[in-house]
Amino acid sequence: MLGRVKPQGSLLEVRHARRHLVTKGSFYERLAENGDAFLCDDDYAHLYAPTMGRPSIPPTVMLRALLLATHDHTRSDAETSRRTRVDLDWKAAMGVDDDFAGIAPTTFSLMRARMVVADADGKLFEKTLEKAVAAGIFGKEKLTAIVDSSPVYGAGAVCDTYELIRGFVRRFIV
């Protein structure tokens, strides 16, 4: 079921309660201030069952987190998940409360898979990106898009070389 961002907002949102701690003039501040102008939960309603299940994390919060992960070049969903829990710049940009518990790593792969299965990934991404550029979120720097041409339909675990090495070393050290 589609979770929605409350239009009234909250006084506990990082962009309000801890505004002085958000990096001034940064991508995070611009996304916090302008994110509502180009992201809307209703644009993603067709990806969710209308009445079944518990409410999801709002898709606009998920997409903001994915934008942040792309901007910061995070290397894994686990790192992205950690940043949604502990990084005040990220919390401000996502428009969540100070006590937001974060987003589980598997939720990111499920969101990407949901968009691929609905054939919505390319169209929605382009539409959102156009709105973001028009709103000035990315500033004046030149954008380079790197698109994976092989979408993942499952939610299987994929490890890069460093994660495999770390796992191997952990077995012998512990």
Account of the protein in words:
This protein has about 170 residues and is an all-alpha fold. It has helices at about 15, 25-40, 60-70, 75-85, 90-95, 105-115, 120-135, 160-174. The chain has one domain. It is globular. The mean pLDDT is about 80.
Order of helices and strands: HHHHHHHH
Portion in strands: under 5%
**Helix fraction bin:** 40-55%
What is the general shape?
globular
Question: What order do the helices and strands come in, and which of them pair?
Answer:
Blueprint: H1 14-17, H2 27-38, H3 59-71, H4 77-86, H5 88-94, H6 105-117, H7 121-134, H8 161-173
Structure summary:
This protein is mainly α and 174 residues long. It has one domain. The protein contains eight helices and no strands.
Provide keyphrases for this structure:
globular, 49% helix, 174 residues, single chain, mainly alpha
